[in-house]
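[Automated response] Your request has been received and processed.

Submitted sequence:
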Amino acid sequence: MVKSLIKILPCIFIFLTALPLRAQYSVYDFDPVVVTSSRIPTALSSSFRTLTVLDHDMIASSGAQSVEELLETSAGIDIRSRGPLGVQSDVSIRGAGFEQTLVLIDGVKISDPQTAHHNMNLPVGLDNIERIEILKGSGSKLYGPNAFGGVINIITRKALHQSTTLKLKGGEHGLFEGSASISLPVNHTTNLVSISKKQSDGYRHNTDFKTTNLFYKSTLKTGRSDLGFSSGYTVKDFGANGFYSLNYPNQREDTRTLFVNTSADFQRQWGWISARFNWRRHKDHYLLDYQNPGFYENDHTTDVIQADIQTTIIQKFVKHNIGVEFGQDAIRSSNLGRHDRFRSGLYYEGQFRLISTVDISAGASAYHYSGWGWNFWPGIDIGYNINENFRWIGSVGRAFRVPTFTELYYNSPADLGNTKLKPESAWTLEQNLLYSTNRIQSSAAVFYRSGNNLIDWVKSADDDPWQALNIAVIRTYGLEYYLSLSPKSVPISAFIRNVSFSYAYLHNDKSISSYQSKYLLNSLRHQLITTISFTELLGIKNRWAFRYEDRIHQDSHIVVDAHLTRTIGSLSLSFSIMNLFDADYADFSGIPMPGRWIRCGIEYSFISN
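Generated structure:
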């Protein structure tokens, strides 16, 4: 008891002395236009869906060093990490499986067809992100396949001003991160170039990692037309101690992701036309035992080529969006073999105002996959402005997901794929009551999802291999509550700038016969997140984040993170303590996450108009 008290005394001291400080928190005192809850850009206050926006100020003040660390502060988002700082994580929304979350970059699908374990191998660094929009609930009427539990759209920033930014960060466990970026607008073009490198010796045996990221983005504006080009490349080399089997501590993996996107947007008096063509290549090399490479080894290469054209037509009472999409998924693998599949899709969305206070968005997508034929996925959303502060939104929609190449073709002594798998499907209903003023933002949502033909890796007995089957029927009930306060009264506002509180609860009514489940039944049951931004003192900003997570079949835990920054001219100094109270926890049973981790950083940023 005495030793434990001595251990946390420094933390208590830091907490008490930090109370007069402040961190910047993103509070909307404007009405931003969002692009993920609808294919028709819509003001956030008029959105038809439950949407979370993590803007640039929030990213900067969070102290996060990866997209995964940033997403962990949003209730309803489940980040299950096998390694820290973006080494490898599975992301799910509202209790859906990690394969059922669609990830976008600037509206372009980048989910991996081999396995969603690779979805967060993002070819873009955190410094290149303008904001992240998170759509919760079915998104198939807008985006087609895999937008089952929700959509994460990572929107990269534009080089609007000439600037140079240099960053250096370091910390315990041999952590080092360095990055450089240059923004250079020239005449009608903008150019953004960045490079970053991050590495650590690891916090336990065989958890070291090295990550390198390159990113380039350019836009050309000619009259009422915008032409865009972007490309990102990321390389990860990491120890994978226990990642796929606790019996093998010497697993090793390296991945390489290349992404190239071209776009064209043409403004017209009646609306606009947009066209995109993109390519994503992902390489994955895996060793079961790096000390004996010949024992078991996998090499996988996937290629995804996509093109889409859409047009938005603005009329007096109705807005239309119509589009077509084509794509090919291909894999060349030492284990899974050589396979290709093709898809083509049509989608439509219409928005209209029924009366002065009621808006409706209705639409559908129809997709054809080689081997599965055509499927139709409708949805309708309704928004009702009760008064200037209250808005009610409701939606119902059908979603689907196609099996990954791993689920179809993987073959090992421990896991067996299944070529007879069918696409998953689900109906989702939700409603949300929103309240917003200059100082208070609140939402209360309830939802229900009925999933059928859900794919899971299951087995009947402990000695059997895991096998992919359309076995599960899961009814998911959930609620989410969010409250953000910016105190106005002098005694409180003198100490606290902003407090946010969010809570999510999930209940699964499942039916998988007598099988043991590998993935689908491990979602978060209770999730509570609180962030506090204290009032600035002596130029120091301070933000605290508290996370409580209670996962089915695992012990609950509380993690506290603290982040302080001080800006002096063009220099910014930062100090972070992640997992302040050294909580012992794991997102995956048997794979412990890091304990207390101290990090420091310095940033130089010069902007010239």
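Summary generated for your ticket: The domain at 18-608 is CATH 2.40.170.20 (Maltoporin; Chain A). The two ends are 58 Å apart (CA to CA).
If you did not submit this request, please reply to this message.
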